[in-house]
Structures are given as C-alpha cells and as structure tokens.
Amino acid sequence: MISPTDSYAFVNDLRLRYRHCGDTSSRPMVLLHGLASNARIWDLVAPLLARRYRVFALDQRGHGLSDKPDDGYDFPTIVRDLAAFVDALALERPALVGHSWGASVALQYAASRPAGPGAASAIVLVDGGAMEMSSLPEMTWEKAEAIMRPPPLAGITREAFVERVRGFVPDPTLLTPQIVDIILANFEILPDDTIRPHLALDRHMRIARALYEHKPGELFPRVRCPVLMVPSIPPEPRDERAEQFLALKRKGVALAERLLS
After folding, report:
1. How far apart are CA 136 and CA 47, in angstroms?
2. pLDDT tens digits, one per residue of 35-71
3. 2 has pLDDT over 80
4. Are 121 and 94 in contact (CB under 8 A)?
5. Which of 23, 67, 75, 217 is the most core-located residue (most Cβ within 10 A)?
6. What backbone torsions phi and psi does residue 27 show, to the nearest 5 degrees?
7. What is the rounded distance in angstroms from the CA atom of residue 15 to the CA atom of residue 247?
8. CB burial string 39-65: b at 16+ within 10 A, e below
9. Whole-number Å distance between alpha carbons of 29 and 226
10. Residue 76: phi, psi to the nearest 5?
11. CB neighbours of 14 closer than 8 A, spacing ≥ 6?
C-alpha cells in the first residue's frame, strides 16, 4: 500500500505541511481535517483513495506541522489559504473532502470559488458542513462556548493521555500503535514527555466561534458542484444534548437537500 509523503507549500506568508500520495496523472483530491486535528487523521484512508486520485492531506493554519500565526482563523482567511494551496500546486478542479470543521471549509470554498480551474469538482462533507448551531434559540454563544471548549490537556504526560483515550474506546484492540501515533500528532511532545496541543486554546475558540456563526444555508445555493454528505449518528443511549445536536444535524441535511436539488 502507498504511504503518504510529507511536503511543504509556501502560501500567504505561511508554510503549510501536506501529506501526499497517488499517481501524478490522477485527478487531485484535497483532504481537510477537523478542528484541532491534523493531516495524519487521513493516513489510513489516503492510500485507499490514492488508487484513483492524487491525494493531498493538508495541515491547515495553526494545526499539525503548519505555521501557527496569531491571526487568520476566520473562514474567509482559511479559504484563501486553501485557494492559494490549490493554485500553488496547480491542482485543476480538485475534489475536496472535509471532516467536521474541514467540511465547513470545503463548503465555504466551493461557494466562494464556483468556477475556474481551481474550483472544486465535488465536495464530500464528512459529519460536518450542515449544522447551524446559532439557529437554536436557546443555544447562545456562551452555551456553545462551554460545549466546544476542549478539555485541558497541556502538561499531562503522553502515557497518561493515551490511557485517557483508551477509556473512551469500546474495543481496546482498535487503538493500534498507528492509531495512537495519529492521535498524538495533534500535540507537540515536550522534552519532559508532556503534551501541548498544536492548536492553542485561544485560536481553537476563535475557530469554534466561526463555526457557531457559520450559515451553511446561505452557502449551499452558491455551490455549483456535486455534494456528498456523510453525517454520523451517535450511538444509543443518547443524552438530551446529543439528541438535540442530532436533530440539528438532521435539519441541516434536510435543508442542504432542498437547497441543492
């Protein structure tokens, strides 16, 4: 199986890390990770996609091994980064696959760049890109902020973190060494073997605020390429909050189907 290779692109005064694999003659596909994640989240699926596509998994601004400026965590700037990346690598009509926040980035890109060689040929929204959190009357930003704030992980040891992750995995055999490495790639490992998230908390919350304010319903009518939505359903039993978000997700998917038909 083909293994991804690391490279760097210099765009918008940033050095962006990306992982790539696949035949150079194949159609391009760009993979966009979610909030506080990194390009390695695609390591298991990228080689499979590379059988048909030339695959590029990007570390977005502030994430992974890409540069981490103090500003530019709004959707317009993130999309400009992506457009500059597509243009720098001369990727003609790339397919975009985004997970969670990455799905919202893919949608924003497709809506803002509907034509031309850099326009998306298709977008795949994996469990993201459809929810409008602010549409819930009771979901103020203060409530959303509390929900979206990540747990304090900086300063705990690598071993303690991995043990914490094991507690969330129903089947421990799924947490292979490769999966552990992929998860740990979200963090800088310090000399004392403690971890620090690559995405600083204040930048994390700026992206969270942008997600809270995102309006997919205003973007779908501007999309001119095929859209595949792959939403997930949380397992049962579900608490009240999970049911609320599931209903909001279903509402977003139904709205997308109506606006894209």
Report:
1. 39
2. 999 999 999 999 999 999 999 999 999 999 999 999 9
3. no
4. yes
5. 75
6. -65, 140
7. 39
8. bbbbbeebbebbeebbbbbbbbbbbbb
9. 14
10. -55, -40
11. 61, 66, 67, 69, 81
pTM given for the model: 0.96
pLDDT band at 121 (very low <50, low <70, confident <90, very high): very high
pLDDT exceeds 80 at position 23? yes
Task: State phi, psi for 201 to the nearest 5 degrees.
Answer: -60, -45
What are the φ/ψ torsions at residue 37 (nearest 5 degrees)? -105, -160
Mean pLDDT, residues 209-227 taken together: 97
Lookup: tokens for 131? 């929810």
Please tell me the distance from the alpha carbon of residue 91 to that of residue 54, in angstroms, as a whole number: 10
Going along the chain from its start, the domains and CATH numbers come out as 5-260 (3.40.50.1820)
Q: Identify the three-state secondary structure at position 202.
A: helix
At 181-212, the pLDDT tens digits run: 999 999 999 999 999 999 999 999 999 999 99
Burial of 9 (0-12, 13-18, 19+ CB in 10 A): buried
Report d(CA 19, CA 55) in Å as an integer.
8
Angle of the 101-112 helix axis to the 75-88 helix axis, nearest 10: 70
Which residue, chain included where needed, has tokens 């059988």?
51
